[in-house]
Design goal:
12% helix; 52 strands; mainly beta; elongated; 681 residues; seven-stranded antiparallel beta sheet
């Protein structure tokens, strides 16, 4: 009987204390749902708080099958050692991948975000997902303000420039804000390109960097940005050097693309036939009238229904019957339109002779198995793009010459001519160089090469990358050949460095490599300054890895580096560890120093979920990770459907900034869906 009364009293006491706690919580303004209560056997009350951290959301998702623990290499902070496990979303099929997109939504700083993973310090990495509408992050949101395309434009010191801007969503116009000045133009300023400080514009311009003269690279701003990103912008405004895969960069070298020369069969096309023109089957240059073309036995184009008779005939540039400084040779006629070869400077050729190979004696080349091909046949019958590729020819109908040409390709469907390399461009190439007193000297084995389309010559170039592009072995600026593609030789000039290895190090990994912002970083910083500076205290300083470590050198290896192979950057998709200190972009890293705790997502982070549906946003967007360099700088991106992609740095793709919330960051409401995102205050 005593024990029953005691138990009853305990239960009454527990209910009373619980009610008092609830009342206290309500009075203090703390949500009751965030607490559980438990009365110990000795009568003491234990009050424990529910885990409402975003870190806890991902941790719990592991048991539900929507997330995994990451077990590879990692180090998210530049200064703080790892203390926490990393969890990331994961799906093994498209259905689960789509479902996760409705579980990882957050509203923070008045913007929508998608959680990507936790950090090893207990934070949560998120990517920008546009402006919220009615406290929701639905994928049916419309366009909003953001960057348009990257471009160049003329900017004048008489225009007004602001350090910020305001946007009138009712009238869809921008106006300058912040510090407004005229005169000196600086990166990160905005302008309407107006000479008044109070004007408005439908397109605003963010100054990226100087181009030349009065021209600047800019990012435009308008109201047509896809909902999931803050517009589209180039990763970098330049693409011709490995330096331009950098989130920041510094040293560059002069570059040059040596293109195959082009010979025109038809200089122009489609002129309308006139019934006042004269034509002839033969033409003279210079014998009848000095320095002029003269028709032999000219005839009037009198029958406009018989244009086909003009094929293979000559017509003066003036259409007259006498003489002129210019003439044409008719290649085809369709109705009353003609395509023709323009004759210049005494040229009266109507055909060319090609050979399968050649012999050479004392600088004179002679074609082997020569065949004559008329310009008319070339223009009308060439069906295979490479039908004459690899053939040799002299000028006109000559079978021998001192300047031999090798056809790289014939042009189709326009069929206007062919590309070629010439024996006149035979230069010395060497396997190594020396550098003394600002003069480069070709050393080691030296070869003379001109026919770079030939596989044997390409094999030579793989070990003979250095050239002065002359028949000299010394020069003050030596060229290094690193790539060959589509009849184009790609080179850089080594100015003031001893070899290509030092030049490459200066461009991607030296201690001073990070001095100039990429275009995408200029955009990210401008966006952060405009929208996020009031929330910096809630963010952690994590590393954004612009991993420029090299996987394969390709043609940048001076010892047997194939000029048909590209430079490949780190291809690892399963490591969150950043290899090089100069690639670890962080506020705390003086060698890769950020102004704000913001960057872009990394390639390995995008591959963690396993299913592309988790990453899709309906529009392609940039990552921070380099991909390759062949004849352009290639950077990784995410396709509209969520797959891993990539493109040259000058293309405008979506800007989706990434941030990391500090450890312990809690949400105050929400379930993580698009319609009911987690709300972080």
């Amino acid at each position: 009987m005593f024990s029953k009364k005691f138990s009853s009293n305990i239960r009454k006491r527990k209910r009373m204390i619980t009610a008092m706690v609830i009342l206290l919580v309500v009075c203090l303004g703390i949500g009751y749902s965030a607490f559980t209560t438990n009365l110990g056997i000795n009568g003491t009350l234990n009050v424990s708080k529910y885990d409402q951290t975003l870190y806890g959301v991902l941790e719990k998702a592991v048991s539900k099958g929507y997330a995994l623990e990451y077990t590879g290499e990692h180090h998210d902070s530049f200064t703080v050692e790892p203390t926490k496990k990393i969890y990331h979303w994961w799906a093994n099929n498209d259905t689960d991948g789509t479902a996760i997109q409705d579980k990882n939504n957050v509203i923070f700083a008045n913007h929508c975000w998608q959680m990507i993973r936790t950090t090893d310090t207990g934070g949560v990495k998120m990517v920008y997902n546009g402006e919220a509408e009615n406290n929701q992050c639905l994928n049916t949101r419309g366009n909003h303000v953001g960057y348009g395309s990257s471009t160049t434009t003329q900017l004048l010191p008489t225009y007004y420039y602001g350090t910020s801007y305001t946007y009138d969503s009712t009238n869809n116009v921008f106006s300058l804000d912040g510090t407004i000045t005229t005169g000196t133009i600086q990166t990160g300023q905005y302008t309407c390109k107006q000479t008044t400080s109070t004007g408005t514009c439908g397109t605003l311009y963010l100054v990226d960097k100087f181009s030349g003269g009065t021209t600047y690279y800019v990012a435009t701003l308008n109201a047509n940005s896809q909902y999931s990103q803050f517009g589209k912008i180039a990763y970098n405004q330049k693409t011709e050097l490995p330096a331009y895969v950098g989130y920041m960069y510094n040293t560059t070298f002069p570059y040059n693309n040596i293109y195959a020369k082009h010979y025109n069969i038809a200089f122009s096309a489609e002129a309308t036939i006139q019934d006042t023109w004269y034509y002839s089957t033969a033409i003279d240059y210079g014998n009848i009238v000095s320095n002029q073309y003269t028709l032999i036995n000219p005839q009037l184009v009198s029958d406009l229904n018989d244009y086909s008779n003009l094929v293979g005939k000559y017509i003066l540039g003036s259409g007259e019957s006498g003489s002129d400084t210019g003439a044409i040779y008719v290649l085809s006629v369709e109705e009353n339109k003609i395509s023709f070869r323009e004759l210049r400077d005494g040229d009266i050729s109507t055909s060319l002779t090609i050979g399968d190979s050649y012999t050479e004696s004392e600088g004179i080349y002679t074609l082997t198995n020569p065949v004559n091909i008329s310009y008319i046949d070339w223009f009308t019958n060439v069906s295979d793009y490479n039908i004459y590729k690899g053939k040799y020819l002299c000028d006109g109908n000559n079978n021998s010459c001192s300047n031999l040409k090798r056809i790289c390709s014939s042009r189709n469907p326009s069929k206007t001519g062919y590309y070629y390399f010439s024996s006149q461009d035979a230069y010395f190439y060497s396997e190594s160089i020396s550098y003394n007193n600002a003069v480069y000297t070709l050393t080691g084995d030296i070869k003379k090469i001109w026919d770079v389309e030939l596989s044997t010559e390409q094999e030579l170039l793989n070990n003979h990358h250095y050239t002065c592009f002359s028949n000299e072995t010394t020069c003050t600026s030596v060229n290094y050949v690193y790539y060959y593609y589509a009849a184009t030789i790609s080179t850089i000039k080594l100015n003031g460095v001893e070899n290509v290895s030092i030049a490459l190090d200066n461009m991607i990994s030296s201690d001073t490599v990070n001095q100039v912002n990429s275009s995408i970083k200029t955009g990210v910083d401008a966006w952060y300054k405009k929208y996020m500076t009031n929330y910096t205290s809630q963010l952690e300083d994590v590393v954004f890895c612009n991993d420029r470590s090299i996987n394969k050198l390709g043609g940048w290896d001076s010892s047997n580096g194939s000029i048909k192979k590209q430079l490949e950057f780190n291809q690892s998709y399963n490591s969150l560890f950043c290899n090089n200190e100069t690639d670890k972009f962080s506020i705390a890293n003086n060698k890769a120093k950020l102004t704000y705790p913001v960057g872009l997502l990394e390639y390995p982070e995008i591959t963690l979920p396993f299913n592309s549906n988790i990453n899709k946003s309906g529009a392609e967007y940039w990552l921070i990770s380099p991909r390759e360099f062949n004849y352009y700088a290639g950077v990784r991106s995410v396709s509209a459907s969520g797959g891993i992609s990539g493109a040259q740095s000058t293309i405008s793709f979506g800007l989706r900034p990434a941030i990391s919330l500090k450890p312990g960051t809690e949400y105050v409401s929400g379930t993580g869906s698009m319609a009911d995102p987690y709300i972080v205050q």
